[in-house]
Design a protein that fits this description.
about 270 residues, mainly beta, 5-stranded antiparallel β-sheet, 4-stranded antiparallel β-sheet, 20 strands, about 45% strand
């Protein structure tokens, strides 16, 4: 994959694929895997019991959410749990009554956070173009992170105090990451070479974490021709096709290059 060229920001601007995480320590006989590990608000997550010391197939396994049992059985059968909104705490507990009659318990609290990525390609379009332009091959792209992380009392955390870690594929972009680094300016790859960008946003103590992912995919540039009226200006609503009927003695046209990294030279 072609590497992105990272441009350093002069000042910090204020402004997912899921990964499994195992909530346990090495000396705990019972653990569970929560997928995705960084759930979004109101997202369904999977709780999968695990143990390397206890035979779960010969045990009674109970999965509880906020003190209410949602699944009881044997083995490593997973349960689906829906978490709350941003900042709302969901308590998940896994209890195992082993063949020896002893009960082993592990628990965690999940507090969903949210982060969105806005991709802003800097490519050529006409001045009245609605919406964002598409990504140009080796063109400049600006990615803006909008994070919503909250405290245990549901108070929004200042985005400028959060830690932003940007990754290209599996490589951490160290020079572009850090506290308040919510904006990434980069050069897109060449055509047919996509770039996967992953952003992880967390509090300095990593107590609250959110993740987002996007793919940068350049497109082929194109040119459209529009009729140009001396009084009304260009008719950007109707591009001229393969043929044009000349109804008067003369006509004017305007050519618009779309999705070029820089304004190209136009020759008629």
């Amino acid at each position: 994959m072609r590497m992105l060229k990272i441009s350093m920001m002069v000042a910090a601007l204020l402004f997912a694929l899921p990964v499994a995480a195992q909530y346990s320590t090495q000396d705990e006989p019972v653990s569970f895997i929560l997928t995705p590990s960084y759930p979004r608000p109101y997202q369904s997550v999977t709780v999968s019991p695990r143990s390397s010391l206890i035979d779960l197939t010969a045990s009674t396994v109970t999965i509880s959410v906020n003190g209410v049992a949602v699944q009881k059985g044997t083995g490593t059968q997973a349960a689906t749990v829906t978490v709350g909104g941003v900042g709302e705490t969901t308590k998940i507990t896994v209890s195992v009554k082993g063949p020896d009659g002893k009960t082993y318990t592990t628990r965690t609290s999940v507090r969903p956070a949210d982060v969105s990525l806005v991709v802003e390609p800097n490519t050529t379009v006409h001045p009245l173009y609605q919406g964002l332009p598409l990504v140009a091959s080796e063109g400049s792209v600006r990615l803006v992170a909008i994070a919503d992380l909250r405290t245990s009392i549901n108070k929004p955390i200042d985005p400028s105090t959060l830690v932003y870690q940007w990754k290209l594929g599996s490589k951490i972009l160290t020079s572009a990451s850090g506290i308040g680094r919510s904006v990434l300016v980069a050069t897109a790859p060449i055509r047919y070479r996509d770039a996967d960008i992953t952003l992880t946003v967390s509090t300095p103590d990593s107590g609250i974490v959110a993740e987002a992912k996007t793919r940068i995919s350049p497109v082929d540039p194109l040119v459209r021709i529009y009729s140009f009226d001396p009084l009304l200006g260009p008719d950007y609503d109707h591009a001229i096709g393969a043929s044009f009927s000349l109804l008067t003695t003369e006509a004017s046209f305007r050519a618009v290059p779309y999705f070029f990294a820089a304004p190209p030279t136009i020759e008629w």
